[in-house]
Specification:
- With 157 residues, the chain is an alpha+beta fold.
- It has one domain (9-152): Nuclear Transport Factor 2, Chain: A.
- Helix content is 29%, strand content 42%.
- The protein has 2 helices and 6 strands; from the N terminus they run H-E-E-H-E-E-E-E.
- The chain has helices at 8-36, 62-77, and strands at 47-55, 58-61, 87-100, 103-114, 124-137, 140-152.
- A 6-stranded mixed β-sheet has the order 2-1-6-5-4-3.
- InterPro entries: NTF2-like_dom_sf, SnoaL-like.
- Pfam families: SnoaL_4.
- Residues 17-146 form the SnoaL-like domain.
Length: 157
């Protein structure tokens, strides 16, 4: 039995899906960079105008609340007044399912480090998992909703 090449149209669809997934993955990396470098004012590059962000402190809805909430978090964690990288958000194991031509769902792990601790203390703030909904808008993919599921530390132990 010989392998037959897939039809060209199938290849084009698979390539388009790969490009969509890569653009979506880039959103998470962009979010981490913007948050970690105190650029919350640029969150429109990552979120839809009516996006919802659910984190440990509650829910932020719409770009204004998201920008204000993330800028506030940055200020809270910049205890040394260094004005750069008071925390580092590393993401991994990003899974994406395209649910339609302009929609997708996904998840990825979050390793959230803080940089204001002495060297003899571990730098982890938390380990978590982002659960996301994505939509394609005029200028590319954006996060429409994200919820952080904290898997460590457990505050009930």
């Amino acid at each position: 039995m010989t392998d037959r090449p897939a039809p060209a149209a199938n290849h084009q669809g698979r390539i388009a899906a790969l490009l969509d997934r890569e653009e979506i993955r880039a959103l998470r990396l962009r979010y981490s960079t913007l948050l970690d470098t105190n650029a919350a004012d640029r969150m429109d590059e990552v979120f839809t105008g009516d996006a919802e962000v659910v984190v440990t402190t509650g829910s932020m809805k719409g770009l204004d609340e998201i920008r204000n909430g993330l800028a506030s978090a940055y200020s809270q964690f910049d205890t040394r007044g260094a004005d750069h990288f008071p925390f580092v958000h590393a993401v991994a194991n990003h899974e994406i399912t395209l649910t339609g031509p302009n929609s997708a769902e996904g998840s990825c792990y979050l390793l959230d480090f803080v940089t204001d601790r002495p060297g003899d203390r571990h730098p982890f703030l938390l380990l978590g998992r982002y659960l996301d909904r994505y939509v394609r808008v005029t200028d590319g993919w954006r996060i429409a909703r994200t919820a952080l599921d904290v898997v460590w530390p457990h505050h009930d132990l």
